[in-house]
Write a structure and sequence with these properties.
By secondary structure, this protein is of the alpha+beta class. The chain has helices at residues 25-39, 46-63, 108-115; strands at residues 5-6, 14-20, 68-74, 80-87, 118-123, 128-135. The radius of gyration is 14 Å and the shape is globular.
Length: 140
């Protein structure tokens, strides 16, 4: 798949792609994150960005209602990298704080919370974007 950059009004590029809502899309999302962070000279953040986008895609695959999701990796300022997944579900994700026994799934937002400087959910009339932001290592 081709990864493309789209100009942003702030002058900073953004990378985005619409993907099928299926587990295999996580691999494409990881590559998009790697490409964007390498282009911005933020190689030290790639591992965290890949984990974050994997968890956000996994949540969208599990909980969204339509056949596609949109992956967004942008740099809205010199300070932060924004990683988001847009889907058509209006359900707000909840971060689990219980140990949840032996269950292997359900702790993704705990990881997102631990890895990001800030994260949240933006609600739209038709769905939402769950996002996390990483503080940049320095100017590009």
């Amino acid at each position: 798949m081709t990864v493309t950059a789209t100009p942003r009004p702030t002058g900073h590029p953004g990378y985005s792609q619409t993907l099928p809502r299926e587990p295999e899309s996580a691999a494409v999302a990881r590559q998009l994150a790697r490409t964007a962070l390498a282009a911005w000279g933020q190689e030290a953040l790639i591992e965290d960005a890949v984990l974050i986008i994997t968890e956000l895609v996994s949540n969208a695959v599990d909980h969204a209602h339509i056949g596609s999701i949109r992956i967004i990796v942008s740099r809205p300022s010199e300070t932060f990298i924004h990683i988001g997944v847009v889907d058509r579900s209006k359900a707000i994700p909840l971060m689990r704080t219980d140990s949840n026994g032996d269950q292997l799934r359900g702790r993704g937002l705990l990881m997102v919370d631990a890895l990001t400087d800030r994260w949240g959910t933006d609600l739209y009339r038709w769905g939402k974007q769950v996002w996390g932001e990483l503080k940049c290592d320095g100017p590009r």
